[in-house]
Specification:
This protein is mostly helical. The protein has helices at about 10-30, 35-65. Helix 1 (about 10-30) packs antiparallel against helix 2.
């Protein structure tokens, strides 16, 4: 199987939505209310930071030479 490169934005977004789902699950089991006025802005902030991190990682990866392209001595 061929190794693929890490997609940082997808990893952060998946982790964020998992944390939100667990938060709401725990709140429902304990009869606690989750304040959407906090969750929604934090979600947008984390997705924005994840997008920036993914873009920076892709730019660094693009500028780095691929070791497979270099000829062996």
């Amino acid at each position: 199987m061929r190794k693929h490169q890490l997609d940082l934005f997808s990893l952060i977004a998946g982790g964020l939505f998992t944390v939100i789902a667990v938060l709401y699950l725990v709140a429902a089991l304990n009869d606690i209310s989750v304040n959407g006025r906090i969750v929604i802005p934090v979600t947008f902030i984390v997705l924005g930071v994840g997008g920036l991190a993914g873009a920076v990682a892709a730019a660094v990866r693009r500028d780095r030479p691929d070791p497979q392209d270099q000829d062996a001595p």
